[in-house]
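REQUEST ID: PR-0412
SUBMITTED BY: lab tech R.K.
PRIORITY: routine
TASK: structure prediction, single protein chain
INPUT:
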Amino acid sequence: MATYNFEQQIYSLSQTANISFNKRFATLNALQDYVTDTMNGLLSNPSAQNLIGDWSTIWGPYTWCNYAAQDNPKDTSSTPYYSDNTMYLAYNAATNQYVLAVAGTNAISWYGWLVEDFSTIKTEPWSKLVPNTTATTAKISEGTYTGMNILLNEINSQYSGSQSGIVDFLANHMKTAQAGATLAVTGHSLGGALSPTLATYLKEIQSTWDPTGNVTVLSTYPTAGPTPGDEAFAHHIEDEIGSNYHASYNKIDMVPHAWEAIMMAEIPTLYTACGIPAPTIIKDAVDLLIGATLMNGYLQAQPLTSLPGTCYKTDPQLITEIIGEISPALLKELESFGLVDANNLVNFLLEVVYQHTTAYNSLLNREAFSVLFDQATGTKPSYEHLVLTVIDELLKVFKTFS
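STATUS: complete
OUTPUT:
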């Protein structure tokens, strides 16, 4: 019997969707094999089952790689294949519960950062995904639309012998499924934006994949998600999912403060209590993003539970080491966009990285499972690497939105 409650189980399965975070492979099959073998190994680990119960993958896991989708890929690395999106469906037969888990942005995925996360200047009508929707005025960001298209139509398409898409799979599976089931859709970060969007989509078209109503509760548990759509779409999520909407975020995590203007305006003061003022370059980036997206009227669906994050104890030596890894050319480019104090910038970004990643293990009460996750994946991405990645993306923000 699981020692974790259902929410802890969901958040652990959400973390598991990120099984290939920061990992590169020489071939597409090697990437998919790693995701499948490592995930199934973790879920069948007796120590993991003692925490979360007996969950097995019944669809997927599937990972989508933009490099493999290109006609003329340009990456000259010997390991050019990595996950841009990952999703899987797990089932617990003892409790008749399903969890559909969506991965967040892979730190090494430029596609995830630029095409899905930051494609927010333009929007797409929700009716483009659900033609018969009642939410005729609702809009989602272009990045959310792209991510949804991948999850619904592309994610399982790159592998021979793969299962059908998730909606077709559910439609076939539900013909013989046990009645009284629950389905929870979950994800963190990018997955925290896509999972409530996907849950709303599935709820709105449930009659097509579950005509007999075997799933009696369809819920969503997004964490740390940026806003997927505008005010009309936020209200549509609330209308469709109702009391089964369970979104949460670390109150000092920068990522879920995007893209609602009022929340973005709070970013420069997030770490004041930690003794870290926002660098001018961060303030300028926030102003650019607010100005570029304000007219879209992005709004977080409610309720949105705020979790009490605490400050990261930064090691001054780590800050020095990270600054030493920044090339003079990159520093000069940062200075051209307003960087004054590299020490302040790195200190601020270390806080950003910690609050968006490690902090959630304790906030979501899944620390014991996270240890098993790290053991299964074999490596733990360094804050140094993640901060340097964020600096690269910060530059792209200025180049894209300036």
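NOTES: The longest strand covers residues 56-64.
REVIEWED BY: pending
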